[in-house]
């Protein structure tokens, strides 16, 4: 059967004994629908398997802080599908899955769970791969983007079953501090005055505190809406006509987007999370990738923390690299819906140096 696969050169889908899978155009890999459980939650995903009889090294893809489908799709860009395709063609199996409450996965919205609970999904994914007779169980690694990079570090700090990790723009500084700096940079780039920036950052700090404690939400919401009403009242009539009413305008603002997530288990755990202690326990090979134009995660701050933490862990097998001309999603030109030059080959080559094909 596997010899026959190598002769197929077009996309084809088949169903065999209840298992759905798709051949790639080059027939170098097949893609299977998989399901695995985390308690009473069933996660659904795709497993990209190279078409050979060998045992395969594998990676698990971990998405960022949004509730993502298995492709981590954003604005039509499907980073996890692209990574799976590239690594699959190079002999590496890849598992990606819909986040809790997204796509075909069950459960509540992702933000109704803590970071530690989302890390449990990764442990379950590792268990799934280890149960298969076509995966080399000692060569299962993790690739996480943004929050996913932080979760990869957390899982690796707790499990010796993780062969390696790749953190793509993964935070190593405190998330609350990252958020404050990101807001300041964004407001500065928007041309806001110092007074406007200071006022906005004061509200941002209050949002963080309310999320941490669960107290003062109603007063905070009232204050935020007053600020938004003041801004809305300064618009000329043409600008106001872009919105049905104030409520529709408010929902489009930063604060309007943030309100539903205040007081959620995820945001509370996020703002209380300390990335350094887990990082100090990561002993497996690790690659940390940063983007030159990322206004959220900064290599200058992060690099020193990584070096100090892994020194404490006694880990000498790690690399820190900066990818030029790309932002947080490692895209140079969004119209292309592709990763920046060299990104995929860096991932692939680094992994191939540490696994057996």
Head-to-tail CA distance between termini: 20 Å
Classify the helix fraction into a percent range.
40-55%
Shape from CA axes? globular
Named CATH architecture of the largest domain: 3-Layer(aba) Sandwich
Protein structure class: alpha/beta
CATH C-level label of the largest domain = Alpha Beta
- Largest sheet at a glance? 10 strands, mixed
Task: Tell me the count of domains.
Answer: 2
Mean of residue pLDDT? 90
Going across the major beta sheet, what is the strand order? 1-2-3-4-6-5-7-8-9-10
Proportion of residues in β-strands: 15-25%
H/E series: HEEEEEHEHEHEHHHHHHHHEHEH
Characterization of the model:
It is a single chain. With 357 residues, the chain is of the alpha/beta class. The protein has two domains: 2-174 and 274-352, Rossmann fold (3-Layer(aba) Sandwich), CATH 3.40.50; 176-271. It is built from 14 helices and ten strands. The protein has helices at residues 2-5, 79-89, 115-130, 147-158, 175-189, 194-213, 217-233, 237-240, 246-252, 254-258, 265-272, 276-279, 299-313, 343-352; strands at 12-16, 19-23, 29-38, 41-50, 56-62, 93-97, 135-145, 165-168, 286-291, 318-323. Helix 13 links the parallel strand 9 (286-291) and strand 10. Helix 5 (175-189) packs antiparallel against helix 6 and helix 6 (194-213) packs across helix 11. The longest helix has 20 residues, at 194-213. Mean pLDDT is 90; it is low at 1-25.
């Amino acid at each position: 059967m596997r010899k026959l696969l190598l002769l197929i050169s077009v996309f084809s889908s088949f169903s065999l004994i209840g298992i759905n899978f798709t051949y790639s155009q080059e027939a170098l890999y097949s893609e299977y629908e998989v399901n695995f459980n985390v308690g009473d939650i069933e996660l659904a995903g795709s497993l990209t398997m190279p078409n050979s009889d060998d045992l395969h090294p594998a990676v698990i893809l971990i998405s960022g802080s949004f509730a993502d489908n298995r492709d981590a799709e954003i604005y039509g860009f499907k980073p996890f599908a692209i990574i799976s395709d590239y690594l699959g063609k190079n002999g590496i199996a890849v598992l990606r899955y819909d986040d809790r409450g997204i796509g075909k996965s069950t459960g509540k919205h992702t933000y109704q769970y803590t970071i530690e609970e989302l890390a449990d999904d990764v442990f379950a994914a590792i268990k799934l791969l280890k149960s298969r007779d076509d995966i080399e169980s000692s060569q299962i690694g993790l690739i996480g983007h943004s929050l996913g990079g932080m979760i990869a570090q957390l899982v690796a700090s707790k499990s010796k079953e993780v062969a390696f990790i790749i953190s793509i723009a993964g935070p190593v500084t405190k998330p609350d501090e990252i958020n404050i700096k990101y807001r300041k940079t964004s407001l500065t780039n928007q041309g806001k005055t110092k007074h406007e920036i200071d006022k906005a950052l004061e509200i941002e700090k209050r949002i963080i505190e309310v999320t941490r404690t669960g107290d003062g939400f109603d007063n905070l919401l009232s204050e935020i809406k007053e600020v938004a009403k003041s801004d809305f009242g300064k618009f000329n009539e043409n600008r106001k006509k872009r919105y049905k009413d104030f409520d529709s305008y408010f929902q489009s603002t930063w604060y309007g987007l943030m309100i539903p997530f205040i007081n959620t288990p995820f945001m509370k755990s996020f703002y209380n999370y300390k990335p350094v202690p887990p990082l100090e326990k990561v002993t497996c090979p690790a690659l940390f990738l940063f983007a030159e134009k990322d206004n959220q995660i900064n290599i200058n701050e992060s690099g020193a923390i990584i070096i100090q933490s892994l020194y404490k862990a006694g880990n000498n097998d790690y690399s820190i690299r900066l990818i030029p001309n790309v932002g947080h999603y490692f895209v140079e030109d969004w119209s292309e819906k592709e990763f920046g030059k060299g990104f995929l080959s860096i991932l692939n080559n680094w992994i191939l140096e540490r696994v057996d094909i």
